[in-house]
Amino acid sequence: MNYMKLERLAKIVEALKTTPRTGWLLRGVYPAIAETIAAHMYESAVLALMLGEELRSCGIEVDPQHAAAVAIVHDAAEAIVGDIVKYTAEAMGKELKERIEVEAARKEIPSVLLLKLLEEYVAQNTMESELVKIAEMLSTLIQSLRYIQHGFSSVSEIACSTAQGIDKILNGDIRLACLRKTLQRYIDMGLRYCSKK
Amino acid sequence: MNYMKLERLAKIVEALKTTPRTGWLLRGVYPAIAETIAAHMYESAVLALMLGEELRSCGIEVDPQHAAAVAIVHDAAEAIVGDIVKYTAEAMGKELKERIEVEAARKEIPSVLLLKLLEEYVAQNTMESELVKIAEMLSTLIQSLRYIQHGFSSVSEIACSTAQGIDKILNGDIRLACLRKTLQRYIDMGLRYCSKK
Amino acid sequence: MNYMKLERLAKIVEALKTTPRTGWLLRGVYPAIAETIAAHMYESAVLALMLGEELRSCGIEVDPQHAAAVAIVHDAAEAIVGDIVKYTAEAMGKELKERIEVEAARKEIPSVLLLKLLEEYVAQNTMESELVKIAEMLSTLIQSLRYIQHGFSSVSEIACSTAQGIDKILNGDIRLACLRKTLQRYIDMGLRYCSKK
Amino acid sequence: MNYMKLERLAKIVEALKTTPRTGWLLRGVYPAIAETIAAHMYESAVLALMLGEELRSCGIEVDPQHAAAVAIVHDAAEAIVGDIVKYTAEAMGKELKERIEVEAARKEIPSVLLLKLLEEYVAQNTMESELVKIAEMLSTLIQSLRYIQHGFSSVSEIACSTAQGIDKILNGDIRLACLRKTLQRYIDMGLRYCSKK
Amino acid sequence: MNYMKLERLAKIVEALKTTPRTGWLLRGVYPAIAETIAAHMYESAVLALMLGEELRSCGIEVDPQHAAAVAIVHDAAEAIVGDIVKYTAEAMGKELKERIEVEAARKEIPSVLLLKLLEEYVAQNTMESELVKIAEMLSTLIQSLRYIQHGFSSVSEIACSTAQGIDKILNGDIRLACLRKTLQRYIDMGLRYCSKK
Amino acid sequence: MNYMKLERLAKIVEALKTTPRTGWLLRGVYPAIAETIAAHMYESAVLALMLGEELRSCGIEVDPQHAAAVAIVHDAAEAIVGDIVKYTAEAMGKELKERIEVEAARKEIPSVLLLKLLEEYVAQNTMESELVKIAEMLSTLIQSLRYIQHGFSSVSEIACSTAQGIDKILNGDIRLACLRKTLQRYIDMGLRYCSKK
């Protein structure tokens, strides 16, 4: 029975490791070079550790390792539900999308701890989950800049929207202000693609 | 302005050519070898031509070339909406999924003809659109058997469900009975994977 | 026996789905990201539908769906013969190349309808087959521009030659003149690469 | 200056995301489908969370989230040093290899926290770092079984050695005994490949 | 001018490095994992060295290093002409195919030495060129066995035909008899696929 | 027994054909498009033939075919040891690295001739092995320029270092001066990336 739990988890992780993020694919990034959901969560987790460390050096109370754990799990429901793009999420309503994801996670993820971390991310009511939100967007922004460098210009739409998203979060919560000095250059690089059409 | 329509269509086709079907990816098929939506529609169209020809030889009135045209377009909305998997489609309701897809197509596909073909497929109220449904499922079944041969055993779930689906359609419409002699062997191969767990 | 026909067709489609076009490969496009013959025929078919629609709106009599069916099949012989590049086609003579392809198709393609569509394309004696010729070249031109954007500069040779080819066909048949307004911008983009060496 | 730290970290993560593990490549796994170092660390982190949860349910004191953070970083030095295979590690001596890795990490990883986590892993003197060692080997074992299923039989050597390695660790530390019920089936699957030559 | 020769050679080598062999592609091997012409010539060259060494140990006069040089060049004309499959070669006639290849090589390969080596291979009138023929077929046989192991069963046709080809050459030239002890096992493995249909 | 030698050699060549060079991977080149060790040796061998021919035309005594044979084998030890990057080679000491490689080759490469060629390369005490050193660096330089064109800017570091390396060797041995006219343009292209940071 414990073995079955591990086997089910391994199937979920396998899906996360072989499924690229839909946003890249729909913008012309070739599947053979498209970032997977697992790779995205990996980068988010590393960035959460570093940004968490930075927040602490500014005197903000946050647990970077807890944030990293949240980051590792934050998109895990996509192993069952798939990576639903923004257009569809808006068309179906953000609440419905999240409800479907959480339900799928509850049914399929064989670990109370993993599930709790995922639900914390969806709820967005802790400092750590907020931090993961930023780390997640920063990871997407950085990857979009890589693809733009490799000639995938349609991706600039994502560079713009994630830069705007990070900027907005930093403006909305005074505790995060100390991340500006680290993030501003990347935000600026992303915003440069907003004017272009 | 006409140029812009072509440019928009080219963007849609590009997305269809670089986006693999989610069903394969979530079952561990590597992105570098995963069938794209465009390739799937291509195979569906070829099969629709051949099965349509067969139906005609049985005296059924159907236009294989019209079916091929429907097949070419039947998943085109996924260029905007993404390829939503069965689990999610069921969780959100098939009607909502189809409504979002048709709306996306109406907004983004710059051709009245293409749009009409897609809507015909969704409505499923012509012999040709029914034929495309079979061709589409047969294409999925054949591709799943290829992946199983290459060692992707999780895909057997799809082999089973598509075989069952084709069988059910053939049972449900007497005009299609004449396709049995062509399809039965593939249906049997797919059904073999239903018992396995 | 019917089953065997389907199996043979499935083998042919498989080859078309896994074989990239030689023109890209020989110009340094990596196999993992090179457009397959099937993907090319797919894009040609979609473009044929749209350009056919446009011709009709100019009062030209043409059946876009018939053109799409031709497009889906036009390179199918390459599943047996391989994708023979221009250099070799010229060295062996265009007639020999076409004869070998048609013979291969006759021997291997298990469908009278598919074969008829392919032969119509080779004969180039209907409005629809001419339309597919344009759609096929436009598809190649558009894909070449994508590769150029991704840094594959050797491909510019193909951008130039297909732009010239489309231009020539439009000049040669007055009925096609109405496509200029849609195609001129792409032709111009392609021609820009003719002067560069 | 803070920006530069982020830029340097992004370069390191990029390398981890594009570099497959050498062990797979040298055993004939194609680069296009070979697991990257980042994907391996991702799977290790998820497994560390779940196994840590299990240990806690057995009354063992361990912080699963801390273990996950260690897992995320444990191979990060390979972004500079490369993934050195067992043969070479043994030839040069395990100490030298670790010294080079730690020195590289100290010079290049722009985060005190990340560095501390990596050093904890190398030292192997906490419950969490021991747990990551198991999770890392389990991740390798599971991935080797996937490759064997896909026909890469040379990989069975790794399935055997990691299964033996996990078994040995479980035998060596009584606190880990409670993981047996979860891990035994995977260990057995791996050991099955030891006898084969 | 010398620089231009190097640039032209680099273009040819680039094509050989990015173009997979058509035989694999048409039998369903995915482009992302298909052996390139360059990789095939590489393996042929290594095998030529080893088999040449073996021949010498049997007292046969042959220069293994000269054979390796021939092997490195033997398919270089395919960078211009493409990799023409057996079906097409037979349809157009082997002589025409070789004439086109040699003419292409003469026009495009900017090195007298490389050209001479290629012509020696085509002429098949030296011990070394005969040895390369065997090495080339052995390389194809070995690669086909790898693909069969990975589940590409259509490739067995090539395993059979190359095994038969090697066997025939060994029978045809008494000097090569000493290679039997090395090659028989591989020949047998290939022949096993001849009976299967 | 002879058969076993061939089987062992085939395993080594397989590893060389599926293992990309670490230098590309660590600089962000995607595995699916990264040059393998075999492809690198192939290009080195072709360049060695051509540069050897050039040296001879300048009256320098050198055997281009012997150089090609050395080139084909020069990195073969990496099939066992892996491709150790410059950073690590320097950290462990060049002598240790070479000793490990030569020992691995002696143990695993089942051919006296291949081994002798490899040892000649490591010793760098013949004109041919020196020529292969240049060809090897030129091959790396040319490939780095290709990747830079495709948007992988981190690779410019390698373009610079190989250009400097070739320049230094040409300066160090008067017999090689005659290669300047062929190589200077490539050296210049590489050096252009030295100033950039």
From TrEMBL, chains A, B, C, D, E, F:
GO terms for cellular component: cytoplasm. Gene3D superfamilies: Hypothetical protein af1432 (1.10.3210.10). InterPro entries: HD_domain, YfbR/HDDC2. Keywords: Hydrolase, Metal-binding. It holds the Pfam family HD_3. GO terms for molecular function: 5'-deoxynucleotidase activity; metal ion binding. Residues 13-166 form the HD domain. This is Hydrolase of HD superfamily. It comes from Hyperthermus butylicus (strain DSM 5456 / JCM 9403 / PLM1-5).
